[in-house]
Amino acid sequence: MTSITIFGSGTMGTAIAGIAGNGDNDVQVLGKADAATAVTGDVVVLAVPYGEVAGIVEARRDQLAGKVVIDITNPVDFETFDSLTVPADSSAAAVIAEALPEAKVVKAFNTTFGGTLVAKEVGPIPTTVLIAGDDADAKALVTEVVEAGGLTVIDAGALKRARELEALGFLQITLAAAEKVSWNGGFGVIR
Length: 191
Known about the structure:
This protein is an alpha/beta fold.
């Protein structure tokens, strides 16, 4: 059993809490009103919009040191839906890793929608969570949590692959916003 703290109680935070709970993990969900509540998880999920991450990092830096931090964000410019808000040679995950050098940052869940996490399928295919990170033990722990919750995992490689994962997430979001794919659908992986 792993202890997991999830920042965010929206669609994605709730879906990830369900996955973690299905795997018999101890889950703590923190919302905006929980600013004074201490982080109890060994794994911390940032299930908030990218614009809120800097505030969490600044306020909780000491509490996040030594933790596995899962970044699920897609740094989309939500005013224009036309670009990512991080430099072209970087990613949200890289920015977070730089801000939290004592944490083990893993990119995960950003290429799936909450509905496909809950349903555990994208159309007729099982939902696959793509992950990236530089720490093998951290990725193994995230894989264990996700698979225990009933989903499939594919390791996309080092944390530098987060840029491609964020581009894929960005494409999926823009297609859904334009009503070309469903918010309960999206991309699936056939192995």
